[in-house]
Amino acid sequence: MTKVFYPGAFDPITNGQIDIAMRAAKLFDEVVVGVYARPNRKVLFSAEERVDMAQQTFKNVANITVVAYDGLTVEFARQIGAHAIVRGLRVVSDFEHEFQMALMNRQLAPDIDFVCLMTNIEHTYLSSGIVKEVALLGGDVSEFVPPHVAERLYARIRELGDNGDDSVEVVSIRNT
């Protein structure tokens, strides 16, 4: 049985990330979606909230489970018995970053392989950061995330009120 680990911040989970997980679920026996508890950037949702949204997303997919994790990705992959780490690639800059991380992780854990899946063309521009910014600016995110995620995203932005700009890393679309 081939188990793979798909790590990320998933703040919030997007249709592009869902696509990568679903395609991995067709290729491998078991996919563990790992929500990183302490990403190195601002997050809008707690680890528990991000896990809950991802669990809701994959609730009807028998071979996908969702967990929170902490620490080195390759160490967690080892702990759960994963044979490989899955990552999604959208653009060239993703490749450069993922290639560097794969080489480092290969040094740390030569027993764990890395599999990169190219995103579907309709998701190449999608990122959690851009989705958060669109929602913050009052835009419609319904085509970028599942309905339950959109509801929670809009609710969080309402909770933040005028402090939303401080909580969401602005990517680029505000002034373009």
Automatic annotation (TrEMBL):
<feature type="binding site">
    <location>
        <begin position="88"/>
        <end position="90"/>
    </location>
    <ligand>
        <name>ATP</name>
    </ligand>
</feature>
<feature type="binding site">
    <location>
        <position position="87"/>
    </location>
    <ligand>
        <name>substrate</name>
    </ligand>
</feature>
<feature type="binding site">
    <location>
        <position position="73"/>
    </location>
    <ligand>
        <name>substrate</name>
    </ligand>
</feature>
<dbReference type="InterPro" id="IPR014729">
    <property type="entry name" value="Rossmann-like_a/b/a_fold"/>
</dbReference>
<comment type="similarity">
    <text>Belongs to the bacterial CoaD family.</text>
</comment>
<keyword id="KW-0460">Magnesium</keyword>
<dbReference type="GO" id="GO:0015937">
    <property type="term" value="P:coenzyme A biosynthetic process"/>
</dbReference>
<comment type="subunit">
    <text>Homohexamer.</text>
</comment>
<dbReference type="GO" id="GO:0004595">
    <property type="term" value="F:pantetheine-phosphate adenylyltransferase activity"/>
</dbReference>
<keyword id="KW-0067">ATP-binding</keyword>
<dbReference type="InterPro" id="IPR001980">
    <property type="entry name" value="PPAT"/>
</dbReference>
<dbReference type="Pfam" id="PF01467">
    <property type="entry name" value="CTP_transf_like"/>
</dbReference>
<keyword id="KW-0808">Transferase</keyword>
<dbReference type="GO" id="GO:0005737">
    <property type="term" value="C:cytoplasm"/>
</dbReference>
<feature type="binding site">
    <location>
        <position position="98"/>
    </location>
    <ligand>
        <name>ATP</name>
    </ligand>
</feature>
<keyword id="KW-0173">Coenzyme A biosynthesis</keyword>
<dbReference type="InterPro" id="IPR004821">
    <property type="entry name" value="Cyt_trans-like"/>
</dbReference>
<comment type="function">
    <text>Reversibly transfers an adenylyl group from ATP to 4'-phosphopantetheine, yielding dephospho-CoA (dPCoA) and pyrophosphate.</text>
</comment>
<comment type="pathway">
    <text>Cofactor biosynthesis; coenzyme A biosynthesis; CoA from (R)-pantothenate: step 4/5.</text>
</comment>
<keyword id="KW-0547">Nucleotide-binding</keyword>
<dbReference type="GO" id="GO:0005524">
    <property type="term" value="F:ATP binding"/>
</dbReference>
<keyword id="KW-0548">Nucleotidyltransferase</keyword>
<feature type="binding site">
    <location>
        <begin position="123"/>
        <end position="129"/>
    </location>
    <ligand>
        <name>ATP</name>
    </ligand>
</feature>
<feature type="domain" description="Cytidyltransferase-like">
    <location>
        <begin position="5"/>
        <end position="132"/>
    </location>
</feature>
<keyword id="KW-0963">Cytoplasm</keyword>
<protein>
    <recommendedName>
        <fullName>Phosphopantetheine adenylyltransferase</fullName>
        <ecNumber>2.7.7.3</ecNumber>
    </recommendedName>
</protein>
